[in-house]
Amino acid sequence: MLGMALTKRQKDFLSFLSEFLEKKGYSPSYEEIAEGMSLASLATVHKHILALESKQYLKRGFNQSRSLEIAPRYYSEERQHRGPEAAMEIPLLGRIAAGRPVESASGHDTVNFGDFVGDPNTYALQVRGQSMIEDHICDGDFVLVEKAQTARDGEIVVALVNGSESTLKRIYREANGQIRLQPANATMEPIYVAGGDVQIQGKVLAVLRKY
User: Fold this and answer.
1) Which of 26, 29, 103, 139 holds its CA 20 to 30 A away from the CA of 44?
2) 93-123 per-position pLDDT tens digit
3) Does the annotation mark 131 as catalytic?
4) Boundary-marking domain end, from 59, 82, 105
5) Which of 12-26, 105-119, 133-147 is the most confident on average?
6) Which domain holds residue 67?
7) How many domains would you assign to the chain?
8) pTM
9) How does DSSP assign 110-169, residue by residue?
10) Is the same domain home to 78 and 181?
11) Active-site annotation holder among 131, 147, 166, 203
């Protein structure tokens, strides 16, 4: 296990490197490591790197200050340490109106959908409103969405209206060039928008309802 092989400080060191690599796309310099981890000197950074090399968690190139590479062993053990639940999560990006369009809000929560894990083009949204109830999509449901910029007439899409408001509707292209965003609720009127004011952000793959 990860905790048996590494000290807490070494785990923190690898975690810092991993986050830096993910955000920047390249490894930090010794100076950036010392500053980011509040280490007293570059010699301390070097000592950590040598220790992690000897434990086969880290690789580095010769005579290069930005050539640190985290070994696959670290990521494998980190996944085991987090447990199987961590691998079953996809991002919950916000809540979407199924009534009138509302501005979508981003968040950092996740929803657990094992069948769809591993696809970076899949995300979840939580539905608000009753406009899609005849398609069995109700207030509070979660919809799984595949990122897409195009859709066929009749498909249920996440549509961005006027650059700032998202809504969940079936999409239809009208003869006059307008887009009809059709609710699945006989009591509600469709939304008509100029074609240039609608951007498709995704297509609905599945619905999950919690009781």
Assistant:
1) 26
2) 677 777 666 555 545 566 565 556 566 788 8
3) yes
4) 82
5) 133-147
6) 2-82
7) 2
8) 0.51
9) EEE-GGGTT-TTEEEEEEESSTTGGGT--TT-EEEEEE-S---TT-EEEEEETTTEEEEE
10) no
11) 131
